[in-house]
């Protein structure tokens, strides 16, 4: 069991209840990362499902939970031969913090592809990309230590006060502790990039309100490539879309989220 596996494990209490412990190592300056929280939820959902893989997840982020003991409550809505539908709620201190609707299915090890397009942007190889500076200990940005990311240089110009003016973020991604990517790692990956509004010149904590992501294939070992962009920033809201490509050049995950423009 890797550190990530341990940090996301869900222990079954009964048919509808799982005990979890939210790990402070996945903090982004106080709040816990949304992708990490989705991975915790999905551990419980998959364990309770007759199917192996979370192919579609829609999560509402009602309240930012603090680290520590919590519970996931699962409700089976329907289960069939090819898919099952589950409602999952992350509860801490008797308050619902996340609410998710999850579709599970069992994906084959090899895809039967009818059509596939390529990525809209070709990334430089990891050795030609750059890392963000290590955050100061007092920042509370512990998430950075859990993963390794190499960024396409133009998309982090905001670090030097030179944003591109477009909502975008692109990076290679893998866990800091050696681990082949799986659906739970992908849940973290779709929310691992800095908010795309940073590159548009807007900074600060940008809380996610709603995030939907789809698992399209089981990823090959190696680096993942994250391609993020946005369509509209207006009235204090922005959208963010992320594609995740694996080392074999396959699209393995897609996400779209609605978030608030950064505060503080």
Please give a structural write-up:
11% of the residues lie in helices and 37% in strands. The protein has 264 residues and is mainly beta. It has a single domain (3-106, 125-260), classed as Acyl-CoA thioesterase, double hotdog domain (Porin), CATH 2.40.160.210. The mean pLDDT is 95.
> Given the C-alpha coordinates, what overall shape results?
globular
> What is the number of helices?
3
Low-confidence stretches: none
Mean pLDDT score: 95
Q: Main sheet?
A: 13 strands, antiparallel
Number of domains: 1
Radius of gyration: 18 Å
Strand content: 35-45%
Helix % is: 10-25%
Distance between the termini: 37 Å
In the CATH hierarchy, the third-tier topology is known as: Porin
- CATH homologous superfamily caption: Acyl-CoA thioesterase, double hotdog domain
Quickly give the CATH architecture. Beta Barrel
DSSP, total strands: 13
Task: Provide the structure class.
Answer: mainly beta
Series of H and E elements: HEEHEEEEEEHEEEEE
What is the C-level CATH assignment?
A: Mainly Beta
Write the layout of secondary structure elements.
Elements: H1 3-8, E1 11-12, E2 17-22, H2 34-48, E3 53-61, E4 68-79, E5 84-92, E6 95-105, E7 147-151, E8 168-175, H3 183-189, E9 208-215, E10 224-229, E11 233-234, E12 237-245, E13 251-260
Antiparallel strand pairs: 1-2, 2-4, 3-6, 3-9, 4-5, 5-6, 7-8, 8-10, 9-13, 10-12, 11-12, 12-13
Helix pairs in contact: 2-3
């Amino acid at each position: 069991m890797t550190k990530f596996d341990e940090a996301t494990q869900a222990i079954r209490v009964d048919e509808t209840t799982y005990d979890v412990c939210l790990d402070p190592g996945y903090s982004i300056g106080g709040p816990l990362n949304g992708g990490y929280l989705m991975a915790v939820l999905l551990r419980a959902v998959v364990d309770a499902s007759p199917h192996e893989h979370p192919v579609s997840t829609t999560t509402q982020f009602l309240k930012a939970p603090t680290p520590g003991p919590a519970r996931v409550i699962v409700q089976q809505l329907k289960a069939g031969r090819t898919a099952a539908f589950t409602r999952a709620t992350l509860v801490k201190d008797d308050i619902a913090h996340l609410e998710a609707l999850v579709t599970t299915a069992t994906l084959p090890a090899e895809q039967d592809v009818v059509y596939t397009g390529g990525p809209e942007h070709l990334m430089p190889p990891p050795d030609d990309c750059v890392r963000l500076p290590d955050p100061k200990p007092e920042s509370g940005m512990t998430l950075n230590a859990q993963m390794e990311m190499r960024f396409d240089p133009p998309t982090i110009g905001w670090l030097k006060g030179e944003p591109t003016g477009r909502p975008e973020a692109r990076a290679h991604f893998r866990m800091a502790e050696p681990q082949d990517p799986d659906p739970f790692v992908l849940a973290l990956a779709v929310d691992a990039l800095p908010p795309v509004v940073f590159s548009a010149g807007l900074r600060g904590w940008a809380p996610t309100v709603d995030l939907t992501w789809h698992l399209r294939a089981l990823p090959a070992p190696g680096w993942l490539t994250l391609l993020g962009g946005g369509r509209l920033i207006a009235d204090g809201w922005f959208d963010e879309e992320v594609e995740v490509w694996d080392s074999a050049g396959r699209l393995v995950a897609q996400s779209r989220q609605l978030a608030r423009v950064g505060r503080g």
